[in-house]
Amino acid sequence: QVHLVQSGAEVKKPGASVKVSCKASGYTFTSYGISWVRQAPGQGLEWMGWINAYNANTNYAQNLQGRVTMTTDTSTSTAYMELRSLRSDDTAVYYCARASGTFAFDIWGQGTMVTVS
Amino acid sequence: QSVLTQPPSVSAAPGQKVTISCSGSSSNIGNNYVSWYQHLPGTAPKLLIYEDNKRPSGIPDRFSGSKSGTSATLGITGLQTGDEADYYCGTWDSSLSLLVFGGGTKLTVL
Fold first, then answer.
1. Could you say which of A44, A95, A109 has the minimum Cβ distance to residue B88?
2. Residue B1 has what pLDDT?
3. What's the whole-number average pLDDT of chain B?
4. B73 phi and psi, to 5 degrees?
């Protein structure tokens, strides 16, 4: 069974940083990319960026450039997303998702609620 | 304001068919594959359609995808109450270098 399991909910103060983890199992981690997608309360889905788990190349959404860093640890098949200088409008559920070459996200983590207050 | 335009809501009776449109441009839908996702509150989104019209294993053939020019459509036949959810289209935008989602469409099965 293919799974992505994320770390638990976080409450942070404005200006702080948060780091969310996403542990993969059931497939060869380096054969796929990992994207991060968030959903603010009452809003739609927002793509944050992508990391190639094989070579660690990244592509971040322009509006998050400078505040977000995506990394992977291939020894534990875990992806990480760190968001810095948190603001209240970063309050959202954050999802990791396995990304195919055509940017279809076929496996999703359960989501991590990040509250900035 | 989303780059991809979806109707905010659609509704139909159980057993009926519904279509959800997703309108974009040549920099996104017109030249890149479209995916569709079902999102129930409190759960993770689920991939329904990828590469415009392909279904992942386990997705029933009641769900279908099509694309023409700069618009894509998700079709759902034999509606069930369990289909009530938000539906999102998504694709790569080559001009923005960004993966873009539609604003989402809430499906109500009356």
1. A44
2. 75
3. 96
4. -140, 135
